Amino acid sequence: MNALRFIASRAAGMAVVLAIVAVLVFVLTRAASGDPVSVLLGDQATAADIARVQQEYGLDKPLPVQFGYWIREVLQGNLGQSIFLQRPVTQALAERAEPTTLLSLMAVAIAALIGLPCGIISAVFRGKAVDQFFTGIAMLGASIPSFWFGIVLIQVFAVSLGWFPVSGYGAPDAPFAERIHALILPATVLGILNSALIIRFTRASMLDVLGEDYVRTARSKGLSESTVVLKHALRNALVPIVTVLGLTVALMIGGAVVTETVFGLPGVGSLVVNAVLRRDYPVIQGALLVIAGIYVLINFSIDLLYAVVDPRVKV
């Protein structure tokens, strides 16, 4: 019963967050300078042409009425019709979802494979040269701009060595392996830079646990250091680590916007950038609302995982 109450309360909180996001997204898109109809029709459009298209898309109505129409469509599972793409926003997002999803998953895997071992080793050898090295790597990774790092990797591994394509995702009928190959460089950019956050959180969490009495007791029993660190310390340090991993997944979605632009990937990030340039209100609103929904779902999943990784946490 407590679990059901927890899920119900979290679902209500998610609904409130999404409602606030919907209001903010709608207001901010309308507050931005520029008119999608003028961009669509060009400078030669007459006032009659502009008025006709505005009426066609409901842009001539008061803003509260436009917001009410949009929310009604969203509640029915319809994110609207793209002004420039001339197709439903849900279809446009679905067409761009694969590159962004694969890129995010690959980047999270790279970040975890780098961040977790480095953070654990840094905590175990606190104050020593290896700790200072990994701490410096974490600070450097948090400071490097993703677009600059992407350009450097393109110059070295794509242009000079020719190991990877400079940009793109392959043709629509390209083999899956070819698409994965095209995502290695952008995923490496996101993975390495976001591993810095995982290193810092893992190190801090492990340091808190390694000083506990039960860890000293385990060592006094003659257990190997690897058993003490991995079985006793790491297991009890997982809650903050799970939190930062979930946060990393969420950050990948935002970071994909810049990375997809640098590498010319036809993902959701590039779709949003083009929509902003064109003032395509339905695409901007729909994409940001979906991204916000993914964020809250990730947070909800993290809360449920707490009870799995730490039995002391009750939901």
Q: What amount of the residues lies in strands?
A: under 5%
Main sheet properties: none
Q: Average pLDDT, to the nearest integer? A: 80
The dominant shape is globular
Content-based structural category = mainly alpha
Given as residue ranges, the uncertain stretches (5+ residues, pLDDT < 50) are: none
Task: Output the helix-strand order.
Answer: HHHHHHHHHHHHH
Residues in helices, as a percent range: over 70%
**How many strand elements?**
0
Count of DSSP helices?
Answer: 13
Distance from N terminus to C terminus (CA atoms, Å) equals: 10 Å
Radius of gyration: 24 Å
What does the model show?
The protein is an all-alpha fold. It is 78% helix and 0% strand. It contains 13 helices and no strands. It has helices at residues 2-31, 36-41, 47-56, 63-75, 89-124, 129-143, 146-160, 176-210, 213-220, 225-236, 238-263, 268-278, 281-309. The model has no long low-confidence stretch (mean pLDDT 80). It is found in: Cell membrane. Belongs to the binding-protein-dependent transport system permease family. InterPro entries: BPD_transp_1_N, MetI-like, MetI-like_sf.
